[in-house]
Amino acid sequence: MAQGFGNINSDYKDWEWSADAGERARLLQSPSVETVPKSGESEGNGLGATSALGAVFIVVNAALGAGLLNFPAAFSMAGGVAAGIALQMCMLIFIIGGLVILAYCSQASNERTYQEVVWAVCGKVPGVLCEVAIAVYTFGTCIAFLIIIGDQEDKIIAALVMEPKEAGSSRWYTDRKFTISITAFLLILPLSIPKEIGFQKYASSLSVIGTWYVTAVIIIKYIWPNKELVPVEIPTSPSTWTAVFNAMPTICFGFQCHVSSVPVFNSMKQPEVKTWGAVVTAAMVIALFVYTGTGVCGFLTFGAGVEQDVLMSYPSNDIPVALARAFIILCVLTSYPILHFCGRAVLEGLWLRYTGVTVEEDVVRERRRRLLQTISWFLLTLLLALFIPDIGKVISVIGGLAACFIFVFPGLCLIQAKLSEIQETRAISWWAQVSYGVFMVTLGAFIFGQTTANAIFVDLTA
Fold it and tell me: Are 327 and 167 in contact (CB under 8 A)?
């Protein structure tokens, strides 16, 4: 996959991980196709320029995103604060473990992107499945982004026209389908067509600030609540033992930074697994505090009545919350093209590999194919977003795919890496690592199967 991706985006200055905010353009739950030359091809000593502290910041920003809007609802589904925090803490152990495994396998295989590591370590079939999963995941996330735009614009328009939601729906220019469509065609589509997306680096830094602002607003609104906001009911335990699993897709969607973590590891000044372990532990603890603060405060503010998008639970005329909505819209507007670029690059790489055509030979048709891919992708995601107004349904599906990136593929990589070792005797540590890999694959498959089956069941019974 290195050849296809390297040629598709060969200007490394637009994609290398540096101190510039744009290179931290976190993909809200975000696959990345960012590549830099391999050690043998890079300049100088082949080491990156990112410090350990800088890597922490990049991983945090890769993990944080619009997924935090769903954490209060996830706490409600899990059965309260205690169950939500316990579930996060248990999953965090394996989330960090997956990040360390990917770094270990990247170092062993000398590959620099997630899909390249899976191809090199696990072989062709898992590699293709990984690339397809990335394409489907980015496609689903783009749908979620458009739904988020519609949610926030509904509230902002309701405040501007000074009418209740029911009255606002009578005006054609306040209709949700119209506002989503006009925003998508005027802003998202033009940003998605270019071959390179390095120009979005500065806007992406604003979206990072917006994410932190949203968390601050939700916490402050809990500490100093509006008098009219009274929780309907605050659950203290899950309704059924299976209800806890319904919160897993949101947690996986929120903490999924694994696909973009491999390029970050290889961009470090000292890409060592031990150092990387400390980096991802610190980053995930920071993300845990942000997600927990948002989830706990949002859940306690509205109780069981919290919306899937927590900002939808606040009044339309709340000015600080309205600013948070504007930040979220900006965040999504800059992130949709990045996620689309990642998905398009995966599809392009698969196309070039199986047609046997190199990028140099296909220059003439590349622009035509890129336009076709972009417009088809854009129209399909827009159409689905217009008729799937509930973001929770989308999160339940792509959250299951996120579990594959966090658990299944890292587990497979660990198993294959240990099985390829030539040893006369298998030490206890070897068996422990293989068992850990098997458990990760099993856990990831369970989460994926359970969340996907539950999403289909809910849709059929709705």
Answer: no
